[in-house]
Amino acid sequence: MKSRGRLFNLKSAVVLSVPVVILVSLTGCTAERRKSDVELGLNPRQAAGRRVFDDRCARCHEAYSSRGKKGPGLAGLFNQQYLSKSGLPANDEQIGDIVRDGRTDMPAYGDVLTQKQMEDLMAYLHTL
Ligand code: HEC
User: Fold this and answer.
1) Distance from the CA of 38 to the center of ligand 1, in angstroms?
2) What mean pLDDT, rounded, does the chain reach?
3) CA of 28 to the centre of ligand 1 (A)
4) Measured from the CB, is residue 70 less than 6 Å from ligand 1?
5) Residue 95 Cα to ligand 1 middle (Å)
6) What is the pLDDT of residue 114?
7) Which of 64, 91, 102, 116 is 20 to 30 A from 21, alpha carbon to alpha carbon?
8) C-beta separation of 91 from 110 below 8 A
9) Measuring from atom 41 of ligand 1, which residue has the nearest CA?
10) What pLDDT, in 10s, does the model give residues 90-124?
11) Ligand 1 atom closest to the CA of 77, numbered from 1
């Protein structure tokens, strides 16, 4: 029968499109395309800091969003006067201390990062 065939096609089209729609909406809201270092205008030091961030920080912090993960999003980190969670001034000294000494639910990196990695990381954080 002709009409049954058409109905089947419609049904299968709907069924097939569901996972596609779910996939598109999921990727749409969780992950923008990752920008390259060049697109972000990072100099070599900042780009090296981005690698440190990817390795050590990205599982808990969004770099380009204020959306929280395990820790607060760090977009515009140094543009704010006070840090969102701790209320400490958003300056090199305090943020350096947070990274070196850790916080509640955030590990300390004072013994993990080399001096150079620390400087690279701070340079990168200033670009957020
Ligand atoms: C296991 C998860 C985790 C990792 C890994 C982590 N952090 Fe955090 N971070 C947190 C949490 C949770 C807080 C909030 C602490 C608090 O209550 O003040 C935080 C706070 C911060 C803050 C202060 C933000 C604010 O608004 O108060 C900065 C800056 C920061 N982290 C940077 C980093 C950097 C840089 C790294 C990598 C070297 C890193 N974090 C790694 C969980 C993490």
Assistant:
1) 26
2) 87
3) 25
4) yes
5) 9
6) 98
7) 64
8) no
9) 57
10) 999 999 999 999 999 999 999 999 999 999 999 99
11) 29
Amino acid at 98: I
pTM for the whole structure: 0.81
CATH number assigned to the domain covering 44-125: 1.10.760.10
Whether ligand 1 lies within 6 angstroms of the CB of 93 is answered as: no
Q: CA 21, 34, 57 angle in degrees (round to 5)? A: 110
Per DSSP (E only), the strands in the chain are none
Q: Does the beta carbon of 84 lie inside 6 Å of ligand 1?
A: yes
CA within 13 Å, CB half, 94: 14
Residue 55 in tokens: 């390795």
Domain ranges of the chain: 1-31, 44-125
- H-only helix segments in the chain: 2-30, 44-56, 92-101, 115-125
From first to last of its 128 residues, the chain has per-residue pLDDT tens of 555 666 667 666 656 566 555 555 555 555 568 999 999 999 999 999 999 999 999 999 999 999 999 999 999 999 999 999 999 999 999 999 999 999 999 999 999 999 999 999 999 999 99
